[in-house]
């Protein structure tokens, strides 16, 4: 089992509503690929977790990375994981408040000095799990 976590900024008119429509398609494809995860959205910013079989996750990420509907794609974690954090979600979706998103993205930043690099993935998983427990906006 493998996961990749990245952040990005959507381009142009990619609204929350449009993103929800796109999610229907993403979920269908992720189901076929046995990919699970979550997409957090806040004011044009995205943080996405992709989990599944390593080569499948890597291939999907390399497609997503080049998608022109977002930019500044920054990988925050890429490595093996022992279990899926979102086993029941082909792609969960949550709207984060600006303050919650900022603190989550800040903590997930690999350049953050207090974050031990080799534990980045684990830390991100813990933070996201904590975030999800606090939010009621999972759709
Ligand atoms: C922010 C963002 C998140 C995305 N997440 C996924 C995803 O979880 N699964 C997926 O299949 N495509 C996702 N995409 C779309 C891919 O970049 C790509 O358009 C799609 O996989 C192509 O599918 P197709 O080859 O079946 O047309 C995402 C795109 C953006 C902009």
What does this structure look like?
The protein has helices at residues 16-33, 54-65, 98-108, 120-134, and strands at 2-10, 36-42, 45-52, 70-80, 92-95. It has 139 residues and is α+β, with helices and mostly antiparallel strands. The protein has a single domain, classed as Alpha-Beta Plaits (2-Layer Sandwich). It has a 5-stranded mixed β-sheet with strand order 4-1-3-2-5, with helices on both faces. Helix 3 (98-108) runs antiparallel to helix 4. Residues 114-119 have low confidence and may be disordered. It binds flavin mononucleotide (FMN). Flavin mononucleotide binds next to helix 1, strand 3 and helix 2. Flavin mononucleotide (FMN) binds next to helix 1, strand 3 and helix 2.
Report the count of strand segments: 5
Shape: globular
CATH architecture annotation? 2-Layer Sandwich
Q: SSE order in H/E notation?
A: EHEEHEEHH
Averaging pLDDT over every residue, what do you get? 83
The helix fraction, in percent, is 40-55%
Ligands present: flavin mononucleotide
| Structural class based on helices, strands and sheet pairing | alpha+beta
Beta percentage is 25-35%
CATH class (first level) name: Alpha Beta
Radius of gyration: 14 Å
For the terminal residues, how far apart are their CA atoms? 25 Å
Quickly count the helices. 4
CATH topology, by name, is Alpha-Beta Plaits
Which runs of at least 5 residues are low in confidence (pLDDT < 50)?
114-119
State the strand order across the main sheet: 4-1-3-2-5
Number of domains: 1
